[in-house]
Amino acid sequence: MSKETVKKGYHCAWQIQYHIVFPVKYRKALLDSEVTKIIVETAERITERYPWRWKPSTNKDHIHLLCSAHPKIAPERIVQIFKRITAREILRRKPTVKKELWGGEFWTDGYYVGTVGERGNWDTVEKYVQKQGKPKADLRQLELFH
Fold it and tell me: Quick one: which H or E segment has residue 87?
C-alpha cells in the first residue's frame, strides 16, 4: 500500500491512515514466518468483508499495521476485529502456538495507534514498518566528537 489518496463515501471524503502496533501475549516471540503468513492471508480475507486496507509487518513479538478505514470506524474497532480474526486463524492453523500461551489468548489486550500525516510521513512510516524484523546490518553508532 502506498501513500493513500482521498477516499470518497456518500457523505464524506477522507484520507486517514493509522499506524497500529500491538504485541503477542506475554511478549512471546511467536511471529515466525509461518504465523506471519497466516496473518497476511487472514488480513487479505478481512478486507473482503470490511472495506479497510492493511499492510501488516511483524517483528518476532509484535506486529505493525498500516491501515486505512472510513472515519466512522474507530481505531479500537479495527484492532478488535483484526486481533479476534487473526488469533482465531493462528490458533486453528498452528495449534502448537497455544502451548506457549497459558491463557489461550494470542494478542495482548493493549495496543498503540497513531495517525500518519497526509503529506510525506506515510512513506517514512511505511519504510520503518517494512524494516521491522529484518537484521540491521548497516547501523553504526553516531560519533559525538571527531
Answer: helix 75-93
As a whole number of angstroms, the distance between CA 115 and CA 17 comes to 6
Residues facing residue 22 across a β-bridge: 63
Domain with 32 in it = 12-131
Q: Is residue 99 part of a domain?
A: yes
Amino acid identity of 19?
H
Nine-digit cell string for 102: 497459558
Task: Count up the domains in the chain and report the number.
Answer: 1
As a whole number of angstroms, the distance between CA 32 and CA 62 comes to: 11
**pTM for the complete prediction?**
0.77
Which cell numbers hold the place of 66?
498500516
**33 occurs within a structural domain:** yes
- Whichever domain contains 36, its CATH number is 3.30.70.1290
pLDDT digits (tens, 9 = 90+) for 19-47: 999 999 999 999 999 999 999 999 999 98
Does 31 fall in a domain? Answer: yes
What contacts 56, CB < 8 A, 6 or more positions away?
36, 39, 40, 43, 63, 64, 65
